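REVIEWER CHECKLIST
Item 1: Sequence provided? yes
Item 2: Single chain? yes
Item 3: Sequence as submitted:
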Amino acid sequence: MKIADLPLDDRPREKAYALGIASLTDAELLALILGKGSPGHSALEIAYALLHDFGSLSSIAEIRMETLCAYPGVKQVKALRFEAVFEIAKRIRGKRGGQSAYRPDEIASVFAKEAGEVETLFLLSLDGMGKVKTQQRIGVGGDDLLLAKPKDILAKMIQSKYKRFVLVHTHPSGNALPSKEDLAFTSKLREESLSLGFRLVDHLVVADGNYYSFTENGLL
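Item 4: Structure as written out by the authors:
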C-alpha cells in the first residue's frame, strides 16, 4: 500500500507535523529517511522489512551499504543518507558520554574456557549497541602464533552484515600480555579495516583467569 493511500494520521510526515517527531515508530522514522519507496514497495514497507530482518535501529545502523542497497528502492544515495543519520547519532551519543553494551570482561569470561592447549582466534561481529551478533573461529595455531591474516578476517566481515567487530585470541601459556606479533597484527588489521569501512572495536587476549584488552589499554 502506498503511503498516500493511508489515512492522514497514519502517514509518517503528517503524523510528525501534528504530534512531533517523537511520536513516530521506528519504522516511520526509517520511512522518513527513505523519503520514497519503489514501484510496488512503499517507504514504510521497506522500513518494516529492514526492522523485520535486523530487529532494531541499532542493528540497522551497523549494516553495510551494500546490504542496504539490496532492498527495493534503496540505492547508494539513500544508503548514504542512512549512514549519515546514524553517524550523527553516534557522535551525539559519544559527546554525551553514551556507553556501548560491549564489555571486555564479560566477553573474556565467556572465552576463558577456550584457553586450552592451542592458541585460537575468534571473530565476533557487533551491532550498534555493542551486542555480539555472530561468532566464528577463524584461526588455530601454536603458542604465540596467529595463522589468520588481516585479509582473511576482512573477507569474512565483507560477507557479514555488520561493520564492527572484536577479535578474541586465546593464549594457552596463561600469560595474557600480547606478543610483538600480536601488536603488529592488530595495528595492520586496524588500518586495513578502516580503509574498507570496518571498525576493529577490540582485540582481547584471553588466558587462564585473566585477559588483555587492546582498547582498555589505549591501543585501539
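Item 5: Key structural point noted by reviewer: The mean pLDDT is 83.
Item 6: Recommendation: ____
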